[in-house]
Every structure is written in C-alpha cells, then in structure tokens.
Specification:
Layout: E1 12-14, E2 17-24, E3 27-37, H1 42-60, E4 72-76, E5 79-81, E6 92-93, H2 95-98, H3 101-114
Antiparallel strand pairs: 1-5, 2-3, 2-4, 4-6
Helix pairs in contact: 1-3
The protein binds zinc ion.
Zinc ion binds next to loops.
C-alpha cells in the first residue's frame, strides 16, 4: 500500500501509463528507464525490466570500485491519489507494484551471475 503524501490517508495508484526509472544502489543510468501502460502485458513488462536491468548491471560491472548489487528501485512520479489530489508527487518506489519482488530478484540473480557481480539483497 502507498499512501498519498498530500492528504495522508488515501491510497495511491499507479496511473494507466508512465515511466519507470531504475535505481540500483541509488545510482541512475541515463537509459535506465522503461515505459509501462495498461496495455502492456506482464510478460512484456518482465521482458522490458529484464533488458534494462541487464544493461544497467553490465554498465555497473565496468566500475572499478565494485560494490555488491544491493538495492533496486523502480521509481515513478506517475501515480494518482484515489481522492484526486493534484499535487505533483515526489517519485515513489513501485517495484512490487510493477513486477513482483521474486521476479525482480530472479532477474538480478541471473544478470549478476552473468556479469560476475556480487548480489546482496536486502529484504
Ligand atoms: Zn491524496
């Protein structure tokens, strides 16, 4: 559940379409984003997330001071309040709303192994 930061008591929903920005260990990559919409199937979302997470991890693997992959966030400002608050929301982490956490963790396990990155997932 995500609560509206303006009225503080209504639930926020993800809009029918928008942009997800990926953060790994609080880092951003310029192309580390993908689109979602209500017409995007879960299979397509999974494939998009997988492709972007792989690009991201491949890019991170080039850093000289490698830290383990720890925290992944899917950040979006494309949310709305059920009572219609119109303020611009600060960006929220919606990783569990877009894909389930187990799916995201599976992708991370696969790509971290492929690029020899350590993975330390925090729950
Ligand atoms: Zn609200």
């Amino acid at each position: 559940m995500m609560y509206c930061p303006k009225c503080l008591n209504n639930t926020l929903f993800i809009k029918d379409s928008g942009v997800i920005e990926i953060l790994i260990n609080e880092k951003k990559m310029d192309s580390g984003r993908f689109l979602f919409s209500s017409s995007t199937s879960k299979t397509e979302l999974y494939a998009d997330a997988q492709k972007k997470l792989e690009e991201f991890v491949k890019w991170l693997a080039n850093f000289s001071n490698l830290e383990p992959l720890k925290k992944v966030k899917f950040i979006t400002g494309d949310v709305k309040c059920e009572s219609g608050c119109v303020s611009a929301f600060s960006k929220l982490n919606v990783v569990g709303q877009i894909l389930n956490t187990a799916q995201v963790n599976q992708i991370l396990e696969d790509v971290s192994e492929k690029y020899s990155m350590d993975l330390v997932l925090e729950s």
